[in-house]
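4.2 Preliminary Data

To establish feasibility before requesting continued support, the project team ran the inverse folding procedure on a target of 234 residues. The structure was first converted into the token representation described in Section 3, and no sequence information of any kind was made available to the design step. The complete token record follows.
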């Protein structure tokens, strides 16, 4: 069951403890976490243009077929946009959502400052048969946050083998104050039952010191081996 186990990893000098989650969008525990992470990813890219792309149900046998066709068409549209407008390569985050009738539409957040609506509408109609394209340009991050909360507040929809959302490699801004990276490839790993935070409290009482972490993922500095004893596997 989701969240009933945690992973305990340790090297000679450090330990890592994190709760194991199923990470499924259908899980009542993981869905809010994934929604929160998606909203953070969306805003971290500092988008300046928001695009909504629709489908033409008459051109597709099912919503799943439409989602696959739109995913393929959007890849072609991105290449056409970059060729048409040039300049610095833009970054994109694309989310698939379902309308009330069950047909897919795409929400796209991009760092591309200008895309002509009529030009994109003609391109999208040529690629998919759908010409309804909405473009909104945002100058303030507060407005970006409002857009993300409104349009990405629901869970992305899953159609066949299409990803719920995807982004270009450089969209998410990497944090500048990340904790030092540790090599866990040679660490000892152990899956244990219970709550990660409670186990971390036990480690702290035995002399460990938390150097980075959240409610479910912790990195600790271990005391000298002679100063503590913890089972299983000190």
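Position-by-position output of the design step:
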């Amino acid at each position: 069951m989701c969240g009933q186990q945690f992973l305990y990893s340790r090297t000679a000098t450090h330990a890592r403890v994190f709760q194991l989650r199923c990470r499924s969008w259908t899980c009542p525990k993981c869905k809010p976490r994934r929604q929160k992470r998606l909203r953070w990813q969306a805003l971290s890219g500092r988008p300046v243009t928001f695009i909504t792309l629709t489908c033409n149900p008459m051109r597709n046998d099912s919503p799943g077929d439409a989602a696959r066709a739109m995913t393929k068409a959007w890849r072609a549209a991105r290449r056409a946009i970059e060729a048409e407008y040039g300049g610095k390569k833009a970054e994109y985050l694309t989310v698939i959502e379902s309308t009330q009738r069950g047909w897919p539409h795409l929400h796209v957040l991009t760092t591309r400052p200008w895309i002509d609506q009529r030009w994109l509408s003609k391109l999208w109609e040529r690629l998919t048969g759908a010409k309804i394209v909405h473009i909104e340009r945002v100058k303030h991050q507060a407005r970006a946050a409002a857009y993300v909360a409104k349009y990405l507040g629901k869970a992305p929809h899953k159609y066949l083998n299409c990803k719920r959302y995807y982004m270009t490699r450089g969209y998410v801004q990497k944090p500048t104050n990340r904790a030092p990276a540790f090599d866990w490839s040679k660490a000892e790993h152990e899956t244990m039952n219970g709550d990660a935070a409670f186990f971390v409290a036990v480690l702290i009482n035995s002399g460990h010191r938390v150097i980075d972490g959240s409610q479910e993922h912790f990195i600790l500095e271990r005391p000298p081996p002679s100063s503590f004893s913890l089972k299983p596997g000190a």
